[in-house]
Every structure is written in C-alpha cells, then in structure tokens.
Write a structure and sequence with these properties.
With 303 residues, this protein is an alpha/beta fold. The strands form two sheets. The protein has a six-stranded mixed sheet, sandwiched between helices. A four-stranded antiparallel sheet has the order 2-1-4-5, covered by helices on one side. α3 packs parallel to α5. The longest helix is centred in the C-terminal third of the chain and has 16 residues. The two termini are 18 Å apart.
C-alpha cells in the first residue's frame, strides 16, 4: 500500500511462468491505471503483474488502449490515476501537479529500467548503428565509451547485425532497423523490455527476422511485455496473455485459454479474424452466449 491507499492485488491467473526463479517477487506491478485524453476514457483501471523472466503479450483491437497502457508503464504517458512499480521504483500518477525533484528522479529511473522498442524504430538518422547503440549508455548512464561500445557490439552479435555496425539507418531494411532498435534497448540493460507492436511497420517478408530475435530473448528469460497482433508469437513465447477491450483487460490467462479456448465473447470475436472457426471456439457466439451479458473485466481492482 502507498500513501494514497492504492493496493496492488495479484489476480489468481497471474501465476509465475516456468522460467521465474522460485520465490521471486513481481518485477512489474501496474495498479489501477486510468487514462483520459480529454473526455475520452482510454484506460479503465488496468492492473498487471509481471514476474522476472516472463514474457507477457497484450492483444486487442486497434484503439483499445494497448499502446497507451504500455507507454504509461514508463511514464511516456502520464496516467490519470494509478501506480506503476518496476523493480524497487514506484511512481504514482500526478497528472495535475508539479513533481518534486525526487519524483522526477524516480521517473527517470523507471524509464531506464523499462526499455521501449517502438513501431517506427526511432533511430537517430545522423548516427551509425554503433553510434545509436552507445548514445544512451554514455550520456544517460555515464558508461565509459569503450565499455559502452563493447556492450553494444555484443548485442549487435545477438541480433545478427555486427557486420552493420558502421552503416547508417537509411541503408538498412526495416527488419534490420528494428533489430538495431532491439539491440539499442538491450544496451541500456533494462529490467524489462516494452515492445509496442514491433512488427506492425514491417513488410511481411521481414517480420520473421524480428520475431526470431524476440523469441530468442523470451526463451533466454528476458522480461518482456509485448503489444502485438502476432498470434504465433503469443502462442509460442508468452507466459501469459492479456486481451484488452475498450480500455479494460477482459481476459487473462495462458495461450491455452485466451487463444485456444477463450471464455469471453469479445475475445472470441477478436480472434475469429485470425484463427477461423475450425481452430478456436471464438467462431461466433452460440445463441446461449448471446443471451448472456458480457462478463466484467478481470483485471485486479475496480474498473
């Protein structure tokens, strides 16, 4: 509990994944996150618990609030209400008030601990690949340039692009640029990686090379929260899936539930676009389903 009485409740299905060390505490606690843009109520009391070494995926229609929720986790968007805790750094929403220096420092720490990989890469066009990777460690974390360069080269090796270290972003394919963006996020050595639809801006022929890197990170135990429409990635890599509808998490669980046997008619309707009636129960609700009011959101806390 914090000074304003915000209590984080772990939902019964938020069980530690198989790679989580025994007895580990959650590394991410997002509690009752609300977000308004004017009169538009985008997030409605969203809560999430993530343990170290887990991969979490968030599914949902465009405009459902997925990316906004992700950006609230590292305060790229200021929540209208709620609390975010990553590792041992906690920040409460304060949308209308100035923050004291100590709070601003906690937000800076939160952003360092939660590395973001964006849809559109966001590489510096005037810097080489290696220059993009060393910029933040040198200037934000004050790492010596030789040490930052050595670390950056190790992550370029991991994403298969060490031969591109001196190229500029304009000379890379979209898939290569996104892999550089992943390496750049890793070079900051964050506690959790946030992926905002990392393949949505790519030509379909380039999606596989990015997903291969992400799957490798998931299997080695990187803590990741991924907003995506890539159902195969969610099925193979995610420890837990959150389906978001109109700013609420309405279904949470492993892929065997949320993708293969969804309980909520809103989840079934969404998945029908991807899987078809022969592979999932979501192929249109039965008359009995239609007669029952949609169940409430399952996220912890009131919504």
């Amino acid at each position: 509990m914090n000074g304003q009485g915000i209590v984080h409740e772990i939902h019964p299905v938020e069980l530690p994944g198989p790679l989580v060390p025994a007895g580990a505490e959650p590394i991410v606690r997002a509690t009752k996150i609300e977000k308004y843009f004017g009169r538009n109520h985008v997030l409605r009391g969203c809560s999430m618990t993530v343990y170290p070494r887990e991969t979490i995926t968030i599914l949902g229609r465009s405009g459902s609030g997925k990316s906004t929720f992700l950006r609230c986790l590292n305060f790229l968007e200021e929540p209208s209400a709620g609390r975010v805790e990553i590792d041992d750094t906690a920040v409460e929403a304060r949308p209308l008030g100035d923050r004291p220096r100590a709070e601003r420092e906690r937000i800076r720490k939160l952003r360092t601990d939660a590395g973001m990989v964006f849809q559109e890469f966001n590489l510096f066009p005037h810097l080489s690949v290696i220059g993009n990777l060393v910029e933040a460690p040198v200037h934000v974390k004050h790492v010596a340039r030789p040490a930052a360069t050595e670390l950056a080269e190790s992550y370029l090796e991991k994403v298969g692009l060490i031969d591109k270290r001196n190229e500029y972003p304009s000379r890379l394919s979209g898939g290569q640029r996104q892999r550089v963006a992943i390496a750049r996020a890793l070079t900051m050595e964050p506690k959790v990686l946030l992926f905002d639809e990392p393949t949505s801006a790519l030509d379909p022929s380039l999606v596989g090379e990015v997903l291969k890197v992400m799957e490798s990170l998931a299997h080695e135990g990187r803590t990741m929260i991924v907003v995506t429409h890539e159902m195969q990635f969610a099925r193979e890599a995610a420890d837990r899936i959150y389906y978001m509808h109109e700013g609420q998490f309405v279904e949470i669980g492993p892929h065997t539930q949320v993708i293969d046997d969804p309980q909520d008619p809103r989840t079934r309707e969404f998945l029908a676009r991807f899987l078809g009636p022969s592979r999932s129960r979501q192929a249109a609700a039965t008359p009995q389903d239609e007669a029952v009011a949609p169940p409430p959101a399952v996220g912890p806390g009131p919504v």
